[in-house]
Amino acid sequence: MDQSERYYVPHGSYWPIVGAVGLFFMMLGLSAWFNGIGLMGWVAWAGVAIVLVMIVGWFATVINESETGAYSDQVGRSFRMGMTWFIISEVMFFAAFFGALFYARQLAIPWLGGEGNNFFTHLLLYPEFEAAWPTGGPEAWGGDFRIMGAGGLPAINTAILLTSGVTLTIAHHAIKEGNRKITSWGLFATILLGLVFLSLQAYEYVHAYRDLNLRLTSGIYGSTFFMLTGFHGMHVTLGALMLIVIWVRVLKGHFTTTEHFGFEGVAWYWHFVDVVWLGLYIFVYWL
User: Fold this and answer.
1) What is the pTM of this model?
2) What angle do CA 125, 128, 129 make, to 5 degrees?
3) Before 110, cis peptide (omega within 30)?
4) Where are the domains of the chain?
5) What is the mean pLDDT of the chain?
6) What is the distance, to the nearest Å, from the Cα of residue 4 to the centroid of all Cα atoms in its chain?
7) Percent of the chain with pLDDT over 90
8) Could you tell me which residues come within 8 angstroms of residue 282 by beta carbon, excluding any fewer than 6 positions away?
9) What pLDDT, in 10s, does the model give residues 76-97?
10) What is the CATH number of domain 74-286?
């Protein structure tokens, strides 16, 4: 068989078992903690620590396999296919949340407001309801609040995230050309911009709670706002962590001009996060 077509079969690994144990302790501790058993919070943190050990150890194993030449072209194709399907699953994840926002704004609210042929339904279910966005829920259940506008911090964060996509693209072209200095600086700039984005988003949340009274309890607007921006922020956090790993690997001399899928996979993920933010900025902040 052509060496480029051989498929590497890894040896037995204990890391999946370690990860399963860590996740078990995390879920056990969190569920007990949420039900008032305060000391179980330490069990959850122990689970987090175990999962982190698993991540570091498993990453190290995969990196060592890559750097020792264990992977073939066939393995590289399977990696690309796996990353493609992973990003598709993430697209579906956010599509469900955007779908919830669309349903609330375009279907449920007009329906409850009596638009179209739903006048009698409106009188029967909720005669006091006004079909206006944003809505605070029944009788403004979450209290009066103000919406988060598209200007200011959201606009600045949009510019920051788009710029991070540019710096990452520069780093990608540089690694293809064998210019490690530009690659490392491009990655560093991308990581820094991602961390600035997260810092500004945290400040935006404080501003929303303290100054706008905008909270998760602020009707469907508040719940969809924090659900979409919060999960996106989680993805930016994961992307930044992955970029840090890739940056350290570049500094250690890993990757070549032709073999650098670890870099490419993270770059795909980061660009996906950028595109999701654009949709989020338009439909959550702007429209």
Assistant:
1) 0.88
2) 75
3) no
4) 1-71, 74-286
5) 90
6) 34
7) 68
8) none
9) 889 999 999 999 999 999 999 9
10) 1.20.120.80
